[in-house]
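The instructor's notes for this session suggest beginning with a concrete chain rather than abstract definitions. Hand out the sequence below and ask the class to guess, before any prediction is shown, which regions might be ordered.
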Amino acid sequence: MSSETRHAAPSPQALLDTLLSMPAPAPRLSEIGEVAELADGIAIVTGLERALSDELLRFDSGVEGIVLDLEPGRLGVVLLGPSEGLRVGEAVMRTHQVVSTKVGPKLLGRVVDALGNALDGAGQIGAGKTSPVEAEAPRILDRKAISRPLATGIKAVDAAVPVGLGQRELVIGDRQTGKTSLAVDAILNQKSTDVICIYCAIGQRGDAVAKVIGALRDGGMMKRTVVVSAGDEDAAGLAYVAPYAAMTMAEHFAGQGRDVLVVLDDLTHHARSYRELSLLLRRPPGREAFPGDIFYIHARLLERAGQFTDAAGGGSITVLPVVETQAENLSAYIPTNLISITDGQIYLSPRLVRKNQFPAVDLGVSVSRVGGKAQSRAFRAVAGNLRVTLSQFEELEDFARFGTRLDDATRARLTRGAAVRAALRQPERDPIPAVEQLAVLVSAMEGKFDGMSEQDVMDVMAAVRAAAAKDLGDLAELIAQNKELDEAARERMAALGEAARAALTTSRGEP
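After discussion, reveal the predicted structure:
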């Protein structure tokens, strides 16, 4: 018998019988819809009756989108990519997932988009853990009191508007008043701590984000920072998702017991992107054309911050949301919303900018509703007198402009106030250690800078800082241990100011 006969192929009937005897595969339900309408950043989809709110949809062209509106017979979808490649009639499929982003230590030192994809040209980030960008805020029982300070390295903030780990402190002001600069300096000051930082740029120009990245690299903080960027040239949907993605990344680290500082720069652009999407989806506009749920989208974002209990991971998320005002209008819709959601605000005044006062923190309007309880005891002794001195000075300064004759006591208050305000000046990208801050502020409050020109005050402050770093190491340890400084310690600090002023006078040959 030939080999062909021995290995003859089974007959078609035998194959059919074999297939019929096998268990039938489980049916797979594929729901496919189509694009009915297109606009800049959004699409109207029909045919997906079972799609859920916030579900991720995938278009045939590869673009993804989030279901934002559920209406009878149609879905309003926010696109997470360019809409140029889409067309009416294109097929759309459900993914049965919500939009997620990458989390974990692989993101540190990288620049990513809202979905965790690399933007820095340093190679793709390997497949790791992902988490949904939307999450419920931690329960009250998962939170505990804010009791630890977050040192920003900025004299006006650490002394008078302190921020605690787990706090939400709004940074608010007009354009070009230094909001981003203040937030970046706060990140740079974490170089000597173990705080992880996340900078989220929402709707910012590419060159502005590049400057921030350059400052972080120069300051040695890029390796412990994640930069999340949704630029003004990206889809509005990515700008809408970006701050939630940043909070998701922060929650991953906080769940491991780490302290995280998140800067959201800025929520004005976030609100505008959401308004753009809502109006395209035909949602009814309300005050200033913003939809009625604009308060909710920011509240559910910022409520995810806090100091958490050991059972909830033991970490903390501190948020510095940035918001822009127009012509110092703090009563606009978005600023008032955010002021009511957050635990205080750092207000940067354009009037102080015009006086060349940087950082332009207006201590009369700025407030911290939590940080005082977390503030270092050494700073607490200075903060009260600092606010009173500056508020009295500003009132008298306006009064003195009328050329009224002033008595000696009033002139002394004006002189002291001018010296204290000059002592609060600080160049950007130069966060100051706590002991150096206190040495400068105590010297100013004790009158060691009275009557000096602005440039002389800057020179003397530099000398005081150098002397404090060299001679006050024991006081720096006491401050780190959150202990009060006695009168002898204050006298040592004031003596540094007096010695620095005397050295400046001697170097110039003045009597």
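Then share the key points. The CA atoms of residues 408 and 414 lie 10 Å apart. The mean pLDDT is 92.
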